[in-house]
Every structure is written in C-alpha cells, then in structure tokens.
Amino acid sequence: MQKEKIRIRIEGMHCASCALKVKTALRKTAGVSGANVNALTKIALVEYNKEKLDAAKIINIIKKIGYKPFLESMESNDGTATDPVCGMKIEKSKSIKKDFGGRIYYFCSEECVNKFESPEQELKRMKRRVTIALSGVLLLALLRVIAMFALAAGASIVTWVPIPQLPYFSWGLWLFIITTPIQFIGGWGFYKGAYTALTNKRMNMDVLITIGTLTAYIYSTFVVFFPNILPVEESNVYFEVSAVIIAFVLLGKFMEDYMKRRTSAAVRKLMDLRPQTARVIRNGKEIEIQADQIVSGDIVSVRPGEKIPTDGVIIFGRTSIDESMVTGESIPVEKGKGDEVIGATVNKHGLIKFKATKIGAETTLMQIVKMVEEAQASSAPIQRLADRVSSYFVPAVIGIAILSFLVWYFVLGNFTMGLLSFIAVLIISCPCALGIATPAALMVGVGKGAEAGILIRGGEYLERAQKLNTIIFDKTGTLTKGEPIVTDIFSDDPKNLVKFAAIAEKGSEHPLADAILKRAESMKIKVPDADRFEAIPGHGIKAALGKNNILVGNRKLMAKHRADIKAVEKQMEAFEEQGKTAMIVSVNKQALGVIAIADTLKESSRETVQNLSAMGIECIMLTGDNEKTAKSIAKKVGIEKVVANVLPGEKAEVVKKIQKEGKMVAMVGDGINDAPALAQADIGIAIGSGSDVAKETGGIILVKDNLIDVATGIRLSKATMGKIRQNLFWAFAYNSAAIPIAAFGLLNPIIAAAAMALSSLTVVGNSALLKKYKMKN
User: Fold this and answer.
1) Residue 701 has what DSSP assignment?
2) Which candidate among 233, 535, 591, 696 keeps its CA 20 to 30 Å from the CA of 572?
3) pLDDT tens-digit profile of 196-249?
4) Active-site residue, 564 included
5) Which of 474, 682, 705, 709 is catalytic?
6) pTM of the model
C-alpha cells in the first residue's frame, strides 16, 4: 500500500465541533488511514492510500461538508506540483506560480488562483467584518447614551439628535436599521457555518451564536413591527444585545487568529531563511536563476557571505559554513570537497561549487519545516477528552437554555428574564476555549523546540515525554563520538596482525573497520581485496584470501569456528577492563593477537546523564560490547545499568522487555540498526547526525547532535503539557461556572459575549507565555 501524507488548510472552521466534524468525515472515507484536524491552526493532516484516493477527492470530501479546503504547497522533485484549490497534479513549468506569505504555490488556472484564499487574506476579510460590527456597535452605544441623557432631561431624543421624523419611525426602528447590517454582514459567517452544521446533522459554536443572536434580533423586530402578536406586553428591544454579541465574538476570533500567527512564528522564521536566487553553471556558463528552479545534479556556485540555496555535495573549494540557523550550533563548520552542505546555511569565507543532491521538499530545511508543521497540526491524546465533551456539549447547552427560559417564563412569570437568560446561556457556553486549549499550547511548544533544534513530531510524543521514567542510550555514535581509533596491538608480529585484520575489514562499513584500515594506512601496509567476505552482525567478520581463512571479532565468533584463543585471552580481558573493544584476529583457527579499539565519549554524555538522573529518570546503556567493556564505559558517564552483548536485531526486544516492567521508555540512537528499537520505544529520540532511517523512526529529533537536548526536550515537553492542563482546567472551569450564572439570570448576554471572547484569548495568551520559556541546558 502506497501511503501519502498531505496538509490541508481549512477555512470556515470556528471551534472544536467543526474540527471534530471534519475529522470524522475524513476518517470515515475509504482509503484514509489517519486524519487529525487542529481547530486553532485550521490544518488537517491526512494520511491516505494513493491507490484508492488522491488529493482532489479528499478536497471534495471537505467541500461537501461545507468548508473551504486548500492544500498546503505540494511539489515533487519530478517537476510536478499539486494545485492547492482543485488538487489537480500539474507540471510546474506549465503552471501559474504565486507567492503567498512566503510560500510558493502552483495553480492550474487563473480560476483557481482567484478562488485561493491565503491566511493573510482571511485575516483581512475578518478585519473588515470586525470593523463593520464595531462601527455599528459604537453608533448604537452613542445613540443609547444620548437617549439616556435626553430622558434624564425630560426631552425626546429627536430634540437632541437630528433624526428625520418620518412616519412610523420610532426609536426601535432606528436601532433595527443600524443593527441589521451588523447582524447579516458581521454575522454572516456564523449563519453559514450553522446552516452547514445543521444540514450535516451536527451542532457547533455557530449554531449557539446563531440561535442566540437571531432570537434577540427576531424578537426585537416583532416588538417594533408586530407588537400585538407577542404573548406579553413588551416594549423593550434587544437589538444592541445581538449586535454586541456578534461584534465581541468577531473581535475575539480576530484577536485569536492574530495571536495565533504571532505564536506560530517558528515556521515562518524557517521559511524566511530560504534564499530567493542562485547561480548555477549550465552549458559552461554561470547564470543566475530563481532558487526553486534548481534541478538535481545542477552545479551551484556560492561566494563568501552568500546563502547556500539547496542541499548538495561540495566538488570544488574549501570554506567554513555557518549552520546555526538550521542546527543551532554557533561555531562555523569547516567543509571541503566531498562534504555535504545544507540549504539556507551561510558560506562564510571561501568560494565553493557543489552538486545539488536534494531540491524542493526534499531539502533539510523543508523537511524540518514539514516536521514542525505536521507536529503543530497534530493533537495530543489529552485532546480526546475535549473532543468528547464538545460532541455532547452543544446539544446539552441548547437543552439548558430552553429549560432556563421555560422556568423563568412559566414558573416565575418573567418573560424578559427568560429571554435574556436563554440568550446568555447560549452565548457564554460556546466551547471555543475548550477546542483550542490543546492546539494553542502545542503550537507554541513545538515551535519553541524547533527554534532550539529539537524537532518534536507530534502532540502524542509531547504527552509521552513528560511521563518518561527510563531512557535507553545506544553506545556507539550516541554516548560516544562514533569515531573509534586503534589504541593497542597485542601480537608477536603487529604488522602481520594488522594486515590480516585490514584484509577482512576492507569490505565492511562498520566504524571499527575504519579504525583498523586507518592504522594499516599509517603503518604503510598494502591491503589486498579478500576473495570472500561475510559480515556477521554482533560477532565480527569472516573472510578468506587464498588458503588463509581469517576471523576478526569477539569470543562468540571464535567459539563458533573453534579457533584457539587461549594465548590471548588474558590480554583481551585486560583491554576490556579498560573499557576498550578487544578484537581477536585469527588465521586458520589460530589467534594471531588482539587489536584494542576505543571510542571517545562525547563531552555532553556525562552531563546529560546527570541531568536526567536529577529528573528521576533511570538511564540504561545498550551495546554490543561485552559486559566488562560496557560497564567500564558506563561508569565514566555515570550509568549504573548496562545491557551488553546485544545483537543489532535484539535491541527492540530489550526495549520491549523493559516496557513489560511497566516503564515508559525512550530510546536514544543514531544508526540504521537502532531504527527497530526507536520504533518499539514509547518515544524514539534520533540524533541529528545519524542515519535518515533513524530520523524517520524517531518521535523527537535532535538537530544539533547534542545529547544535552534530550533533557531539554523532556523539560520543554513537561512545560508544554503543563500549559495544556492549565488551559483545559480554565476552559472547563469557565463553562462549568458560567452556565449556572447565566441560567439564573445573573449574566447579561452582552457580558456573556465579552466573557466568551475573553476565555479564548486567555487560553491563547496563556499558551503564548511558553515563548518566554528558557531552554536551559
């Protein structure tokens, strides 16, 4: 099954109920394997089977339930892209290219360009609606104040204000005229949303606002035009109530969206790093082109002080490159021929030419952007509680509002209080704060991590990270630098020993093989190719050259092939007690000697273990080394528990065994052989310098290759989850306290509207405080 993941921005969603409706519709669709919808960012993350579905069909599903879906930029390295409006796949060279908010989109036609709405356009449109609503409310307030003064002075308002004295024009009629544009221009989005929800047999925030405002508006209209139809003698009108509710809710949503854009600055900062132009060498000439026109294989020239436009490998020149904007490391990195360069980093000193290897969506920068955006669009498991509450909340609120009206009118005989309490209950109960409690904090927390080089791939990993009590570290390349060197040679004929070891290791890609080959090179030993070669994971190497059968490895390998190692056993134990990896070299079942290899510990390893231990987290080291060597290394970094003699294929089983003890386990690794263990762990933490497979499997990726960030990431996770809990507490507490107050008639609907808008702003503002969180190492 070919799976693909897409991000869709959805306009028209106003609350958690809307997000739940879209998520339910997507998950019910055949071929969709996963869907998450974020109410705050208005982003849907959809994983689907390419053989059964395509982007265009998914877009149509969302359109059918009444929302406006727009695909986030989807371009491929085969020269094609996907239209964000219709989902059609098109050739980039034949498309209409547009830049919206720093993001490039490709359209199939002008019609699709005109239908497209960027977040900036949506914000401007909402600003216009807010302006209309607030202007009308200010005019209503002014007239109300003048009327109060006129009444106090014993005069009519028409003597104070030059209102035309036309037949049938009363005070209520003027309020009707001023309120109507606010009602149907400012409130249009709510009414449209309510209609869509009801036609799909669901209820959301729009339904509550629509019922509440239309009740006040229609009732007041009857008072003005058909007063005799009403069951009570009533002369008061509530046009201001309806208008102010719409204005306050719109203002709250506008401020919420504005604050959301401020708190999601991390992705925009990353996008802004991209250079706009590049110089490439084509047909022997250096030409300047747009950076997005680079194709794989292009030779790109970069002068000192310029940004590197895409990922590649240097083929000419030496320089130092400032990679701080991507990795967070402030010290420039020396680079030369054969070294990889990362797009958006800065060439500090020398002229270089490099071959483009990754372009567009495949570049390191865009992969980071993609991970951050997907994480921000995800939801934490704790959000499910809010989703469940929201699904039952709106119908329950409508029931409470109706009951409140019936009690006030039929039991207490007060129609006015019944009407006002009915409206107040509906307005105060909108579950906006509940819906954005989790995504608001998640967006800021993930963005904060990205700025520090800690990529958290989703809300579920944040939630698990703060529950961790055990962390397993792979030794080689994680606790150590992964650059072993030969420290000792024990043999009567060291040169011959190294020669046979190098012959066997020549075909291996293991770091220990590099150490032996480098020693052979330094000893000026010519190393012929072996006739046969076999790498035996967790044991060593088996090779043959002519009549010589060579074994290089551990005791297990020697025992399996019945090699005599008695002469070297004592020295081997001595090397192991020193924390070195001892490798026996045997030719034709006779041990020639032992080569000792040691790997240097990373400077941050001991400090990391100390930080985690202080947080109450147990650290375990996992290695293929024998127990003596492993314990010696573990002691140096402060780790007490060691699991040694582990074959690459057994790492995942070790993780599983520890999980069965009831522990929440994270695995930290960097290699391809760590991938199964990273996947098995509750959280896989992949080192940034490691293999792509390890990074694909990791739930948290440390871009800077700094182990200190393991503890930093866990602290950030705890801080983010703390904000989520605070948000959910206040959202639940607000609704729990506000509904009875409104039902008992103690809350004016206008105050209810202001309080409802304020509750959402409080959640967003509380989440924004995470931006000030200090990422202590």
Assistant:
1) E
2) 535
3) 778 877 777 788 788 888 888 888 888 788 777 666 555 667 787 788 878 877
4) no
5) 474
6) 0.66
